[in-house]
Structures are given as C-alpha cells and as structure tokens.
Amino acid sequence: MKGIYSALMCSFDEQGNVNEKGLREIVRYNIDVSKVDGLYVNGSTGENFMISTEQKKQIFEIVKDEAGDAVKLIAQIGSLNMEEAVELAQFATDVGYDAISAVTPFYYKFDFEEIKDYYFTILENVDNDLIIYSIPALTGVNMSLDQFGELFEHDKVIGVKFTAPDFFLLERLRHAYPDKLIYSGFDEMLLSASVLKVDGAIGSTFNVNGVRARQIMELAQKGQIDEAREIQKVTNDLISAILDNGLYQTIKEILKYKGVSAGVCRKPMKTLDEDGVARAKQITKKYL
To answer: Looking at 56, 64, 161, 180, which residue is catalytic?
Structure first.
C-alpha cells in the first residue's frame, strides 16, 4: 500500500452526470502515463461532496473495472451521514477495493469521542482496513498525537492521509507509529514529508505530475536531497501556476490537452473562460 497515489479526478458532463468514458480515460492516464502506484477514489479532488450516493457507487465500480489489479485502490467513503458512510464502505469492499478511507466528520464541532465512534462504527460494519483522512484546514478538526494513537489502537486502522503543514506532529507520528502507513497529502510539501519518511503521498496534481512526485520521494529516500529539491521546485512552479488559474478546472484542461475526456467540474464550481483555458494550455506546454 506504499507509494504515489493520485487523488483521482472524475469526468462529469455539463449536466453533472458521470462521464464513464472520460473517467476510464483518466484512470488509464494515471496508470499508463503518470505511473502512479494507486488511486484514491472519491476524495475532495473527485468532487465527492457534491455528488449523490449512487454516483459515488458508480465511480467506485467504473474505476475498479478499469484499473483491475494494476494498482492499489483506496475508497474514500467518509460522510456526515453515518448510514451513507457505512453503505459506501460495504459497497467499495464488495467491489474489491484494497482499503477504505474516511474524512474526519466536519461542519459540526464534533468532539473526539464522537469522531472515534464514527470511525469505529464504520469498522464494525465492514471487513476492510481504514485510512484516516485528516485535513484540518477544510474540516476544522485538529487531532493530537494521543488522539491519533487512540484511533491507531484499532487493528483495522492502518494509517492516515496527513494533509496538514504540521511537520512537528508528522515527525512525532512517524516516530511513535513506525508500523502505520502515513501518506503526505500536500503535493507542494512532498519533499519535506519524504525527509520525515512518510510511506507515500496522495495528491491532486499527481493526476498529471505523478512521475515527478515519484522522483521526489525516491531521491529523498536515497538521501539525494539537492536533486529532489530541484524537482520539487519545478513541481511547485507547476502547482503555483495551476492554483492561480483554478485547481480542479486547470487539471481537467491539462488532461484534455493530453487527449483525455476529463469533462467539467460540477456546479457550483465555475467553468474556465477562454483566457483560463488558454493559460491551462500554456501551463501544459511549459511544465508537462
């Protein structure tokens, strides 16, 4: 389960329906061109929190059918609706996903006991391993080392997608739990996380920049920090350009420029205007 995972994009049509052909092409591009080790399906990058339960199931099924056993698959099933989270966890497990993942419950100010009960309730109802998805900037949930430890006591909680700039906590986690999987969640901080010996990384830009991500991690693991830093610099130039133009929209336009039917983002996300599309093409030509 170690390595580089794309936070998988999903292709939608103008009406917000899943574009199966485009989704299959995105999966193939990630495997064949970006050379990722795995796919993290129905996370933030997949616009998960704007789609229905049935669409989530449809995506899980299509991705598994297209990817087969070529790469590892992690299903993000987290939801504020506990019944949906359990239903999706069971569905993804039955379809054949290697692990499930769940974002910490958000919006309402849940205390840690409620968060712990959320994770353990999911695991009571499914026979699969679980990866915590910690992204405090979007959920408002900041867990301590001890709280992570309480979750890690469950033998089916195998790791965490750590999407936070708290490298002190990251180092403490790595030291305290050497046998748990830790995935870096910030593409622009991959080198720093790799130096702290994370097991892998899960990122949006890996849909188009997976090869560089692998180079950064492997060079860091070999102690070739200067070489890794040069690749991280180019990567961050790319990321800055993408963010300035619109994250998900620009990645989809890059994929389109590469011949992939990446579709559009679901509303209320905006569609790039002509200038935005032109900038996306310039970014592709310059960096990819």
So the answer is: 161
